């Protein structure tokens, strides 16, 4: 589990690094165009402008990193971890109610009685995979 979070952290920092490199390339292009147009800018001013733009860009990207790590709240990924109530349990296929909606589900753990609460552990197309809720 720890290795997975390290990989996620590396992935988000790689995204930030690529975005910063994009900003550096744009800034270098602006300085190149100014140089080609014979606009005289002292080197110290270029360094200060580069540091200001780079640091502000880093701060903005640093603020975005937490949003990249957030759990998805919509779609099928957002249903994982939610709790549902079994409405019907005729066979291995269940009908459960989650957030006011009725869904087909299957529980590999075995029979689940009507009225029991279950945890959603996965989504396979339009069928939920559930397990008994630990009491």
Q: Provide the gyration radius in Å.
A: 26 Å
Distance between the termini: 25 Å
Strand percentage lies at 15-25%
Mind summarizing the main beta sheet?
Answer: 5 strands, mixed, barrel
Q: Tally the structural domains.
A: 2
Give the integer mean of the pLDDT values.
82
| Sheet with most strands: strand arrangement | 1-2-3-5-4
Low-pLDDT residue intervals, each spanning 5 or more residues: none
Total strands: the figure is: 5
| Silhouette | rod-shaped
Tally of individual helices = 3
Describe this structure in words.
It is a single chain. With 135 residues, this protein is α+β, with helices and mostly antiparallel strands. It has two domains: 2-69, no CATH class; 75-132, OB fold (Dihydrolipoamide Acetyltransferase, E2P), CATH 2.40.50.140. It is built from three helices and five strands. Strands 1-2-3-5-4 form a five-stranded mixed β-barrel. Strand 1 (83-88) and strand 2 form a beta hairpin. It is rod-shaped.
Sequence-ordered SSE layout with sheet pairings:
Elements: H1 2-36, H2 43-69, H3 75-79, E1 83-88, E2 93-98, E3 101-106, E4 117-124, E5 127-132
Parallel strand pairs: 3-5
Antiparallel strand pairs: 1-2, 1-4, 2-3, 4-5
Helix pairs in contact: 1-2
